[in-house]
Specification:
By secondary structure, the chain is of the alpha/beta class. It has 8 helices and 8 strands, in the order βαβαβαβαβααβαββα. It has a single domain (9-227), classed as NAD(P)-binding Rossmann-like Domain (Rossmann fold, 3-Layer(aba) Sandwich), CATH 3.40.50.720. Helix 1 packs parallel to helix 2.
Length: 233
Amino acid sequence: MTADVRGRIIVITGAGSGIGEALAGRFRQDGALVAGCDLPHALEAAGVACDLAVAADVTNSEEMNAFAAQVVDRFGHIDALIANAGAAKLATIQDGAWDDIELVIRVNLFGVLHAIRAVLPAMRDQGQGRIVALASRNAEICPPGLVGYNASKAALVAATRTLAHELRGSDILVNNLIPGPTKTSMNPRGTLPPDTSYPTANMLVTLPSGGPSGRTFFEEQDYPMFSRFSSQE
């Protein structure tokens, strides 16, 4: 049973494909107002899934700040951010192309931080907000040949816990979401439909005041690997 999101302003990065597009469609279907960003080539799909679609690169802080400003200008505030945009490239530590490793870390870690930094001023001004960053079990199992992806997702979990500490005492809650092995263009071998994680995303953007922060969730539950690191302890 999902919570009522009617009228909530939800920002989603990477909203033009895969999980981001699917979540945007589900939230919008349930009555939320969705603002999404993606790269220019995916803007048409984002425009179908979202109420507002903007071409913006998460690795560019100026573009993300401008996107957040457009959202506030259009809707007046931001209730939640789902930092979904991500990248993955095969690369081993010794032989992988350095540009590929660096790109993945820029998107998966720095891109999330740019998105968070862009929406935080509005959330602080309004006194509340919910932030959800997409993590991965790769931060735990670390399969070979994906050094940039594995390392970026592990660092993202640490960054989320850090931010939860920094926001303690406010009504801005920040958590990670593990979507599971979702079938997308980035993961064609995935087994789950792109909207599988919607119930967990819905739960996290509608958390009540005083709810969990600095945690990692999978299938609406604390993920055991990271649950003992709660920023509330």
